[in-house]
Amino acid sequence: MPAVGMENARRTQAFLTARRAGLVGCAVCGRVQAPGPATCLRCGSRLTSRDPQSLQRVWAWLLAGIVAYVPANVYPMLLTSTMGRTRENTIIGGVLELAGHGSWGVAAIVFTASVVIPIGKFIAIAYLALSVTSAVVIRGHGRQRLYEVVEFIGRWSMIDVFVVAILAALVRFNFAATVNPGIAAVSFALSVAFTMLSAQSFDPRLIWDAYEADDT
Amino acid sequence: MTDLRPAELDISAPRPSPWRNLSFVWLVPILALAVSLGVAWQSFAARGVLIEITFLNASGVTAGETTVRFRDVVVGRVERVHFADDLSQVIVAARIDRDLAPYLDADAQFWVVRPEVTTRGITGLSTVLSGVYIEGAWDAVAGTPQTRFAGLEGAPVVRPGREGRQITLRSTDGKLITAGAPVLFRGIEVGRLDQPRLTVSGDSIVVDAFIEAPHDRRLTDATRFWDTSGFSVSLGAGGLSLDVESLATLVAGGIAFDDIYEGGKPVGPGYVFDIYPDEATARRSVFVRSSGNAVRLAVAFDESVSGLAPGAPVRLGGLEVGKVEALSAELRDTGAGPDIRLIANLAIDPALIGLPRGAGREEVLDFFEEAVGRGLRARLATASLFSATLVVELAEIEDAAPAVFDRDAEPLPLLPSVESDLPDFTATAEGVLERINALPIEELLQQAIATLASVEALARAESTVALPDSARSLVEDLRAIVNDEATRSLPTELRAAVADLRQVVAELREGGAIDNLAAAVERASAAAANIATASEDFPALVEDLRALAAKANALEAEELVAAATRVLESADAVIGTEEAKALPPALTGALEEVRATLAELRAGGVVENANATMASARSAADAVAEAARGLPQLSARLEALVAQAEGLVGAYGARSDFNAETLAALREVRAAARAVSQLARAIERNPNSLILGR
């Protein structure tokens, strides 16, 4: 197949997928086995060559995450009452206030954790899901790396929620100062959870199917 | 050739319905969307109504923080603070709870509550920590909702929804009226004053006040308001009186009101109450109130009107019926040259002279025309006894010179006047004072002082002071006599002597010496007769003493001293006489002699010595007789002494232990006297028993 070799010249190397080899790879333990049994012979997890509903679940969780992300930004995250005065802060409001006080570092962290990462995740997951069915720019390895990054970083989005939870638990000085979580805290936590589930639902093997489709 | 071939069938597996493979996971975003939309809808639906309140300044109002409160409950929050287009005002946009929106109609009021320190206390203290807030007030009646309101500078006096009544007060002096000052009714705060303001014409000050229900029911046309600010000091016939209301009104001023008379009619809206400077004026105002339709008259006086001033009252029968409005002089050309008359213009209130309400000028003039016909004249009188100010008095003079009421005179109807009796009164008063002045008060006082001095001297005199002492010494002397052993033993010794005698006589009888005895008995009976005669004098003597005592009793106070002194002297004399002192021993001596004789008799042979015995018995009887002769005298003297002393004591009165002692002493003396007189009586009754023992 000289043509193939020509086409794949810029690839690091050619590879064979389990599917093409007529085998099924376990998504959990990675054992490759002949199709037939419904469960992995080694680890006992459910065995499918490709999850047909994977993309649906990805899109569903992603949509839920995006929906939950809206109130998380519109409603107040923190209800702070100090000496009888009550203040309400949304995520962006808090970032702006921190920046206004000159705490650029903290503002940057909060902004990254609460805005950049969730939105980046939405885009990344949507891109990966799209890349399975349509032609995309990034090639297989890049997409695989993107998927891994998204999976890794997802949990760090919860930093804001943790801050709110800790503050609300610790700052209880009645009249002097009290911190209460707002609706946004719940929404934000749900949003992060939904996007994590979305990323989990994604079957990375689809990346390579699309990769092969690109080739042919 | 037709190569008939069946059309190629497009055979393909039926496409699986996309719905069939639909994952249940899609429920999650749908649920999330539903929840989000639900929350959004809820918060949108519950979102309050945005209203705009304009303030001149919005110090302390912060967007997003400042709350709007109604009855101290947070009902909204300021969302935005911005300026009006011409920068003349601050517009505070606030969102108010939807439930309350229908009540935000034209009567809603808003003001910013800030900490405030006034004379009535500190308010809004909570805003020091929590920041200012906007307080709203509106009634419970839903009206046409509004969204633009003009904010107040401070808390309004009348809050919408409060039961009560708003009234208008008028004063000429706004010095002591401050906004928020209390309105008091019998010292209880029942309302507040609003901001005072000048009327357009600038001649008076008008202030709105709010009287809380149910006290607003007391507002009638009989109600008078007066100023209670500060304090008032008045010095009058009733003494010094200092009036101070509460401390708050002292500093901030205040208004009090009360119904001056019963049965006032309720007042309609727009009724303006006057504020009187003090309570007394307010209460008096009932008589000078309706001076609006006063009828003006003039009086010409030929005498000096010095002391009469505009505003002086015009009195009819002592009651104030009007005022002097103006004084002027008028030149009148008579035949003998120009003559000056002094004209006083009077304003008479028709209602106060008893004419029916609504009586006009004609009725008043008719009244005066008729009254002048009866002799009514105007004259000057002093306002009070000690003042030089004058009032105009309308009085009916009995024998007044005929005069007419000139109702067509120009410029005012002229009321005839008479010469006042002012100078006469002054003269009389002066005369009275002169006469008082001429009284010899100084001499009188001197004399009184001298009298008192002499009385004092008398009281201080040594003899007066010593009197009780000498009386006491007399009693003591008396007691000494009575207590004397000799006196005491007298009766027993007598008895012993008698017993002895009896024995002797018995022996004699047995001895047959009876005959010799006759002579002795003769002598003894003579002695007894002596005693009897002496005893006969007793009653008379006692009577005399009684008389003396009575006389002493009847003596006046001054004479008492002298009498007492005399008594004491005579008592002294009695006690001091040698006789009195020697008496008991003498008696004793006599008895001793008798006893000695009897002893001798007994010792010697009875018969042989009979003669000698008889002789000594005779001498003993003699001695007894002699002693007995002295007895009545002694008894009488003692009795007299007792009576005198008794009189003295009686004069002194039943008091003091001196008295008690004296009485005791007297009792003893009397007992002694009684014993003596009993003896004497016994001897008198039966002289022979002394000797014969029967």
CATH topological fold name of the largest domain in chain A: Butyryl-CoA Dehydrogenase, subunit A, domain 3
Record the strand order, biggest sheet of chain A.
4-3-5
Shape descriptor of chain B reads elongated
Radius of gyration of chain B: 62 Å
H/E topology pattern of chain A: HEEHEEHHHHEHH
Supply the number of structural domains of chain B. Answer: 4
**Termini Cα gap of chain A:** 12 Å
The percentage helix of chain A is: 55-70%
Unreliable residue stretches of chain B: none
| Domains of chain A (count) | 2
Instruction: Tell me the fraction of residues in β-strands of chain B, as a range.
Output: 15-25%
Based on CA inertia axes, which overall geometry of chain A fits?
Answer: elongated
| Derived structural class of chain A | mainly alpha
- In round numbers, the mean pLDDT of chain B is 72
List the helices and strands and how they pair.
The complex is a heterodimer of chains A (216) and B (694).
Chain A lengths: L1 H6 L16 E2 L6 E2 L20 H21 L3 E5 L2 E5 L1 H10 L3 H30 L6 H14 L5 H12 L6 E5 L1 H19 L3 H11 L1
Antiparallel strand pairs in A: 1-2, 3-4, 3-5
Helix pairs in contact in A: 2-4, 2-7, 3-4, 4-5, 4-7, 4-8
Chain B lengths: L26 H19 L3 E7 L11 E4 L2 E11 L6 E7 L12 E5 L2 E3 L2 E3 L3 H4 L2 E5 L10 E3 L13 E8 L10 E4 L2 E6 L3 E2 L6 E8 L10 E5 L3 E6 L2 E6 L2 H6 L2 E5 L12 E5 L2 H10 L6 E7 L11 E4 L2 E16 L2 E12 L12 H14 L1 E7 L7 E7 L17 E2 L6 H17 L2 H20 L1 H22 L1 H27 L2 H23 L1 H17 L2 H20 L1 H26 L6 H43 L3 H30 L1 H6 L2
Parallel strand pairs in B: 1-9, 2-8, 10-19, 11-18, 15-19, 20-26, 21-25
Antiparallel strand pairs in B: 1-4, 2-3, 3-4, 5-8, 6-7, 10-14, 11-12, 12-14, 13-14, 15-18, 16-17, 20-23, 21-22, 22-23, 24-25
Helix pairs in contact in B: 8-12, 8-15, 9-13, 10-14, 10-15, 11-14, 12-14, 13-14, 14-15
